[in-house]
Amino acid sequence: MLERVTAAGAPVQRAAVLGDPIEHSLSPVLHTAAYEALGLTGWHYDRRRVGAAELAGVVAELGQEWRGLSLTMPLKEAAFDVATEVSERARRARSINTLVRRADGGWAADNTDVIGIHRALGLGETELPRATVLGAGATARSAVVALAGTVSGSIRVAARDPRKASVALAELSRDLPIEVCPLEEWADDPGQAVVSTLPPGGSHAVAACVRTPSDPAPVLLDVVYAGWPTPLARAATAVGWRVVGGLEMLIHQAAAQVELMTGRKARDEVVAAMRSAARTASDDD
Question: What b/e sequence results for 103-142 when a residue is b if at least 16 CB atoms lie within 10 Å of its CB, and e otherwise?
Answer without folding.
Answer: eeeebbbbbbbbbbbbbbbebeeeebebbbbbbbbbbbbb
